[in-house]
Amino acid sequence: EAQVTQNPRYLITVTGKKLTVTCSQNMNHEYMSWYRQDPGLGLRQIYYSMNVEVTDKGDVPEGYKVSRKEKRNFPLILESPSPNQTSLYFCASSTTTGVSEKLFFGSGTQLSVL
Amino acid sequence: SQKIEQNSEALNIQEGKTATLTCNYTNYSPAYLQWYRQDPGRGPVFLLLIRENEKEKRKERLKVTFDTTLKQSLFHITASQPADSATYLCARGNYGQNFVFGPGTRLSVLP
Q1: In b/e form, how buried is each residue of B26-53, taking b as 16+ CB within 10 angstroms?
Q2: What is the pLDDT of residues A74-89, one digit of tens each?
Q3: Which CA distances in Å does A1 have to A4, A26, A27, A73?
């Protein structure tokens, strides 16, 4: 089954404790992206990747890191989380061939930073 | 930079009526626009894609239009049902480039 898998689904942590949210897709997609969603602000893009070893900043990259060492994986790293990073996070992937570039989203990760 | 606007934060309509949601974009015309549905706490789900050279696209009770002169896409749900209640997101894309989402419109279909 084609899917984007994010882990964990829920995460509670404390300020300053490094964490990683994993994202994996099994569709051989080139494009992967991370979004955060906050009430009243909609989906805001954090980082995206057009292919392996190619990443770029989205609209709200401060406080986040990503890497794309393999095509299927695109982890989101918070080196020193702060309470303003409490949010619902989504990973998404898509092909970039131009045939049908719809995004497939993961189930989301609800992060709380205390 | 490219910006996507959706005209209403929330829209309430009566069951059986047609819901019409608007998406406007600024600057250059995207190669295509997409519409997604999102239920609370879940990831968005793709509904329809319309390319810049297409005027209209249909899928069951859904219809999308693309007007490059007005820089606008309209999303229609005909014969709306309470199960259609959700947030609908518009997104723009260009082949091989980044996706940008609008803020979404929360639709409530009242029985």
Answers
A1: eeeebbbbbbbbbeeeebbebbbbbeee
A2: 999 999 999 999 999 9
A3: 10, 8, 9, 17
Contact status of B30 with chain A (Cβ, < 8 Å) = no
A43 and B89: CB-CB below 8 Å? yes
> Is the CB of residue A52 less than 8 Å from the CB of residue A71?
yes
Averaged pLDDT, groups of 10, chain B, 111 residues long: 80 96 85 91 92 91 93 95 96 73 93 91
Sign of CA dihedral A59, A64, A68, A72: negative
Locate the DSSP E strands across B1-111.
4-6, 10-14, 19-25, 32-38, 45-51, 56-59, 62-67, 72-77, 86-93, 100-101, 105-110
Are B57 and B63 within 8 A, CB to CB? yes
Does the beta carbon of A35 lie under 8 angstroms from any beta carbon of chain B? yes
| Alpha-carbon gap, residue A41 to A63, rounded angstroms | 18
The chain A residue lying nearest B98, using CA atoms, is A48
Contact between chains at A43 and B104 (C-beta distance less than 8 A): yes
Compute the residue count for chain A. 114
Nearest alpha carbon to residue B69 among B18, B39, B36, B29? B29
Nearest CA in chain B to A30: B96
